[in-house]
């Protein structure tokens, strides 16, 4: 197991353990791991992991996130991406809050060694009930990209919305959409979106399937496609 994979798997395990230990003190955790391995006529290995841990007290929320995706087919790597992030949110009213965040990610096949994102903005809760949640976010993002061939800096506006609906206590669906218009280079806008469906197995574990689409209208030099699509199925632990 290489260091990147070990790091993200360790984050997932640590998040599950810490959230379980401190759940009564305002900690929450959602960790998911997916693994596909075939051998024989087809030799393929794919691993994906995500982790979200948050701590809420009074009107303050701290959140950290991590993700990892790697795929090999007959020994040839076809996907390699990871991300880490931290965010602070302060509620100003029942529906409105402000946030500040910092993240770093990398994607070998998008020709990005590291990409640093600094975020500042606001969040508005449109509706929040036992079965339906809907909120939107708007703000500013400064991005520094260390590409394979050069380093570039961009300023973005960020618009985000997320909807979650519970069909019953065991089955739920979620959809989110993010739009990032580039203020530095107008042609370099990005659109990211994902739809997912989760079914509970126990009070803690569930199975989740998701379809993620990422579009970059002006990718780095050498990137063949502007759109990346990822379909995942994973086991989720939520505390």
In short:
The chain is mainly beta and 239 residues long.
Main β-sheet description: 12 strands, antiparallel, barrel
Helix content: under 10%
Give the end-to-end Cα distance, rounded to a whole number of Å: 27 Å
The value of Rg in angstroms is: 18 Å
Explained architecture:
The chain is mainly beta and about 240 residues long. It has one domain (about 5-239): monomeric porin ompg (Porin), CATH 2.40.160.40. Helices cover about 10% and strands about 70% of the residues. The chain has 1 helix and 12 strands, in the order H-E-E-E-E-E-E-E-E-E-E-E-E. It has one helix at about 5-20; strands at about 25-40, 45-55, 60-75, 75-90, 95-105, 110-130, 130-145, 150-165, 170-180, 190-200, 205-215, 225-239. Strands 1-2-3-4-5-6-7-8-9-10-11-12 form a 12-stranded antiparallel barrel. It is globular, with a radius of gyration of 18 Å. It starts with a helix and ends with a strand. About 15% of the residues are buried. Mean pLDDT is about 90; it is low at about 20-25.
Key features?
about 240 residues, mainly beta, Porin, twelve-stranded antiparallel barrel, 1 helix, about 70% strand
Please write out the topology.
Layout: H1 3-22, E1 27-38, E2 44-57, E3 60-73, E4 76-91, E5 96-107, E6 112-128, E7 132-147, E8 151-166, E9 171-180, E10 190-200, E11 205-216, E12 227-238
Antiparallel strand pairs: 1-2, 1-12, 2-3, 3-4, 4-5, 5-6, 6-7, 7-8, 8-9, 9-10, 10-11, 11-12
């Amino acid at each position: 197991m290489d260091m990147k994979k070990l790091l993200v798997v360790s984050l997932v395990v640590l998040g599950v353990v810490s959230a379980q230990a401190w759940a009564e003190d305002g900690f929450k955790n959602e960790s998911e791991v997916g693994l596909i391995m075939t051998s024989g006529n087809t030799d393929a290995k794919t691993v994906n992991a995500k982790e979200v841990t948050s701590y809420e007290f009074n009107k303050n929320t701290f959140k950290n996130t991590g993700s990892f995706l790697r795929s090999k087919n007959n020994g040839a790597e076809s996907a390699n991406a990871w991300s880490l992030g931290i965010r602070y949110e302060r509620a100003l009213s029942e529906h409105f809050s402000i946030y500040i965040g910092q993240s770093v990610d990398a994607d070998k096949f998008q020709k990005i060694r590291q990409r640093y994102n600094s975020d500042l903005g606001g969040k508005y809760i449109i509706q929040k009930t036992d079965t339906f949640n809907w909120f939107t976010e708007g703000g500013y993002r400064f991005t520094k990209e260390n590409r394979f061939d050069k380093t570039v800096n961009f300023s973005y506006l960020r618009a985000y919305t997320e909807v979650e609906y519970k069909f019953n206590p065991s089955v739920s669906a979620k959809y989110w959409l993010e739009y990032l218009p580039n203020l530095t280079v107008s042609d370099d806008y990005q659109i990211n979106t994902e739809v997912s469906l989760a079914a509970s197995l126990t009070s803690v574990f569930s199975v989740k399937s998701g379809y993620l689409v990422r579009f970059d209208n002006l990718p780095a030099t050498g990137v063949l496609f502007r759109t990346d699509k990822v379909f995942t199925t994973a086991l989720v632990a939520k505390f």
